[in-house]
Design a protein that fits this description.
Elements: H1 2-8, E1 10-21, H2 25-33, H3 38-45, E2 48-59, E3 63-67, H4 74-78, E4 89-94, E5 97-98, H5 104-114, E6 115-118, H6 130-134, H7 136-140, H8 145-158, H9 174-187, E7 192-196, H10 204-221, E8 224-229, H11 232-238, E9 241-246, E10 249-254, H12 256-261, H13 266-272, H14 277-280, H15 283-286, E11 288-289, E12 300-302, H16 307-314, E13 321-326, E14 329-335, H17 336-342, H18 352-358
Parallel strand pairs: 3-8, 3-9, 6-7, 7-8, 12-13
Antiparallel strand pairs: 1-2, 1-4, 4-5, 9-10, 11-14, 13-14
Helix pairs in contact: 8-9
């Protein structure tokens, strides 16, 4: 029963995906499968290892963030999902179909109707108005502007561009241009939104606004979003499911809070070491689940509140405990000593009880 439920909740399934860039990738692929790494492959075969045995399930209606440093393979990976890049080996399943078996017509339909893409550099057509850019997918299908205008205008309004439809891209700021890109993706009415470093070119304040807009839209629309970034703060803010790449392979994936508390590799530990844990960690990740409230409770807190907000509420008093609530029902207890231990980036922070025993 659980297996079936998991399968029905997976929108995209990536299986044993490899990408080798070079003139003769198949012999090089065999070397990689035999254990050769990225550096040695380049030195010995003059081929570049782009992706190394990627296995990722992308849940439906959630935001999956794929992150890593430059050269980690994240942009290569997202371009396999709509076959802008062809793999050397592997499978990409979308709604139960292996899209690597698609013919040209099926592939065009996938890109037009099922997947939309928002790029870092906006990718707006300069000779078309904002409205025409938002309705680009419908226009390519032969619809007149009159036919798609209401839908495009609705999404332009929704992303904060009310009354801007007659402007041209060069008349808009960078943040406004990226809003057009998001409106275009929404106007296409696709189930899946691919966003490749979509906010990286924006100033910090505008970038924060765009992140908040995406969270707001996602809460409302529940699209399947695949978001690429090299910024861990952005990843932790947006992700329901986080995939971290290094040198073309997956180092760790899972729920962001779990990864932050349980880094599985020194590479991940380095990534999360400078994070403001109080601002990022949620009560649900460090509370004692389903614990009965014993003794006096200082009050009730929401399971999704940040630890930072609880610290402010408690005024730093480590002797307090709070009843944790979700949708009006108690789900656990959080005491401040447990919270403080979770702020320490160490192996023991994932297990406060062991920290207490060893301390």
């Amino acid at each position: 029963m659980d297996t079936d439920m998991n399968e029905t909740n997976i929108k995209i399934s990536i299986r044993n995906l490899y990408k080798i860039f070079g003139d003769d990738p198949l012999p090089a692929l065999q070397q990689v499968k035999d254990g050769m790494g990225k550096t040695e492959l380049l030195e010995s075969y003059n081929h570049v290892l782009g992706l190394n045995d990627i296995n990722v399930d992308i849940p439906s209606g959630k935001t999956t963030v794929i992150m890593g440093l430059s050269g980690s393979g994240k942009s290569t990976l997202i371009r396999h999902l709509n076959r802008l890049i062809e793999p050397t080996s592997g499978e990409v399943w979308v709604d139960g179909d292996n899209i690597l078996e698609y013919n040209e017509k099926q592939l065009r339909d996938l890109r037009k109707h099922k997947m939309s893409m928002v790029f870092q550099k906006f990718a707006l057509l300069p000779h078309r108005t904002v409205l025409q850019n938002a309705g680009l997918s419908a226009s390519i299908e032969g619809q007149s502007e009159r036919k798609y205008a209401d839908e495009a205008r609705k999404w332009l309004d929704r992303v904060g561009l009310y009354g801007q439809g007659d402007q041209y891209p060069h008349q808009l700021s960078g943040g406004m241009q990226q809003r057009v890109g998001i409106a275009r993706a929404l106007t296409s009415n696709s189930d899946i939104m691919l966003m490749d470093e979509a906010f990286s070119a924006l100033d910090p304040l505008i970038r924060t606004d765009m992140q908040n807009l995406l969270i707001e839209l996602q809460n409302e629309l529940q699209k399947t979003v695949v978001f690429i970034t090299h910024d861990l703060d952005e990843a932790l803010k947006l992700a329901d499911h986080l995939v971290i790449l290094k040198d073309g392979f997956v180092v760790q994936q899972g729920e962001p809070q779990h990864i932050l508390l349980n880094p599985a590799d020194p590479y991940i530990e380095d990534f999360v070491s400078d994070i403001n844990r109080a601002r990022v960690l949620r009560v649900r990740s460090v509370m004692e689940r389903n614990a009965e409230a014993r003794g006096e409770m200082a009050g009730e807190i929401d399971h999704d509140s940040t630890l930072e907000s609880v610290i402010a509420l408690s005024e730093g008093d480590t002797g307090l405990s709070y009843r944790v609530m979700k949708d009006g029902a108690p789900v656990g207890v959080l005491n401040m000593r447990r919270l403080v231990r979770a702020l320490v980036p160490s192996e023991q922070s994932a297990d406060p009880d062991s920290a207490r025993r060893s301390g």
